[in-house]
Amino acid sequence: MGPPLIKQWALVTGASEGLGREFATIAAKDGYDVILSARQQDKLEALAKGLRRAYQVQVEVIPADLSRAEEAESLWARASKGRQIAVLVNNAGLGRNGRFTDLEGWVRESASIEVNIMAATILMKRAAAVMAAHGSGRILNVASTAGFLPGPNMAVYHATKAYLLSLSEAVSEELRGTGVTVTALCPGATATEFFAADGAEHKTLITRLPLPLADSVALAGWKAMKRGQRVKVVGAMNKIFAFVPRIAPRRVVTFITGMFLKRRW
After folding, report:
1. CB atoms within 10 A of CB 17
2. Is 55 a catalytic residue?
3. Could you tell me if 80 and 126 are in contact, meaning their C-beta atoms sit under 8 angstroms apart?
4. pTM of the full predicted structure?
């Protein structure tokens, strides 16, 4: 992976930790100037300082809470002002483990819809339009193997990832021949702060399984994006999880998934 011939920018959301932090590091290592966005400005500033020192690239920090409808538009306006965004990594995501009928979970579930669907769509739409006009660009949407199957006990999260996966594939086809590609990265559960943020660590069968490290997942996604691959499922077991719903009765798949996602500890 060599640096871009013309200095260009990569915008990474959810960049303060986990996959986002790894994507930002890979982008800087690949020679891109980087715009970091997330809610936690202190973590972003620390990451920016490290990237500047290690890779001699420009790094800008734009804090944003993408669960607020207007902040995605504001983020794009600030990020793209006077800059050519060559890469968009739509990594920010929220989820909640719990029964759909638990009304107290709606605050986080509604935030998940705003971040995983609304913000991701707004940023993708803005980026795709500008990139198509320039005749080049890469969009990487962090979907999930959750997008391939219904997820009882994480119903809203699975539904949002199904949306993002479908949107990515459809827009990728629309953009065919424009020089712009869209890649949906579909990891399974990954060793990041995602589950801890939900307070769900060590409470489901999924989180008891050995989890791949964020750096290897991010690198696989970045390489797939650079190739223009439409969908990248990371890991042999996850490829099985993605394939089984195509051949097994959907009701059986849904039942088994619900068992894996049920809180137990």
Report:
1. 19
2. no
3. yes
4. 0.85
Q: How confident is the model at residue 165 (pLDDT cuts 50, 70, 90)?
A: very high
pLDDT the model gives residue 201 = 45
Of the candidates 32, 55, 157, 163, the residue annotated as catalytic is: 157
Q: Looking at the DSSP assignment, which residues form a beta bridge with residue 250?
A: none
Question: Is 189 buried (19+), middle (13-18) or exposed (0-12) by CB count in 10 A?
Answer: buried
Q: Fill in the amino acid letter for 250.
A: R
> Mind listing the pLDDT tens digit for each residue in 234-243?
976 666 676 6
Token pair, residue 45, equals 């500033």
| Residue 152: pLDDT band with limits 50, 70, 90 | confident
Q: Could you identify the residue written with the tokens 């995501």?
A: 93
User: Residues with Cβ < 8 Å from 204, sequence gap 6 or more?
Assistant: 97, 153, 260, 261, 262, 263, 264
